Amino acid sequence: MTKPAEYYQRDREWHPPALAQGYKTSVARSPRYSLISLEQSASEITGPVFGHNDIDPGDNDLLTNYAQAGESPIGERIIVHGRVLDENARPVPNTLVEIWQANAGGRYRHKKDMYLAPVDPNFGGCGRTLSDENGYYFFRTVKPGAYPWRNWVNNWRPAHIHISVFGSSFSQRLITQMYFEGDPLIAKCPIVQTIPDPAAIDQLIAPLDLNATIPLDTIAYKFDIVLRGRRSTLFENRLEGN
């Protein structure tokens, strides 16, 4: 018989409310009824997982994984690195970490993205990797650009990278956004403003890491992903399913 997984209770006050008047699309996305907590069954706990065979060499290098031979994406070359940790600061190894982002001009490679910035023919905007035995992961990429969005008349999303982390089963997926230290648009973003605790916002901002920066080549930013507990990274979804 499979023993149910044991989880720390997630602090709901750490998360923004589902309905935020300043974030217009939250009106349609927010639930109208009380949330229902569901116990995980064996199918969720023992569902499919990802392994090393699902990762190709170079999947974590967005500077080369879509570029034509001899070409490179346009933009500021950066390294995003850090560790995946549990609520007790222990490393979480062999965790699938995926990212997706806009290019240096602030445009996604998506048919519905109509922003006037050009598509970079040498940048796909997505990558994946597995954390090592110490929970460490890293990506090479370009720093994404800010872009406008139709919330109010003159709203711009700060430069950000979407990050997805898979747990020990398919149902254990957490998604967040990483911002960059010093970006003045962070404080003005209606999505960020829905977060009630300034400490939670700080957990989403990657500081510049000159120790990991490669001189004359690539600037580094450090972003640790903490899965649960008071120091948890703020995620867009919750383990309870909401």
Name a few traits of the molecule.
mainly beta, Protocatechuate 3,4-Dioxygenase, subunit A, 5-stranded mixed sheet, 4-stranded mixed sheet, EC 1.13.11.3, Intradiol_RC_Dioxygenase, Protocatechuate 3,4-dioxygenase
Q: What is the CATH H-level superfamily? A: Aromatic compound dioxygenase
> What is the radius of gyration computed over CA atoms, rounded to a whole number of angstroms?
18 Å
Proportion of residues in helical segments: under 10%
Largest sheet: 5 strands, mixed
Query: If you average the pLDDT, what whole number results?
Result: 88
The low-confidence runs, each spanning 5 or more residues with pLDDT under 50, are: 238-242
Number of individual domains: 1
Please provide the count of β strands.
11
SSE string: HHEEEEEEEEHEEE
Q: Which class best fits the helix and strand makeup? A: mainly beta
Shape: globular
CATH architecture title: Sandwich
CATH class: Mainly Beta
- Spatial order of the strands in the main sheet? 3-2-7-8-9
Q: How many separate helices?
A: 3
Span from first to last CA?
27 Å
Beta-strand level of the residues, as a percent range?
A: 15-25%
CATH topology: Protocatechuate 3,4-Dioxygenase, subunit A
Protein name: Protocatechuate 3,4-dioxygenase
Family: Belongs to the intradiol ring-cleavage dioxygenase family.
Keywords: Dioxygenase, Oxidoreductase
Domain Intradiol ring-cleavage dioxygenases: 45-229
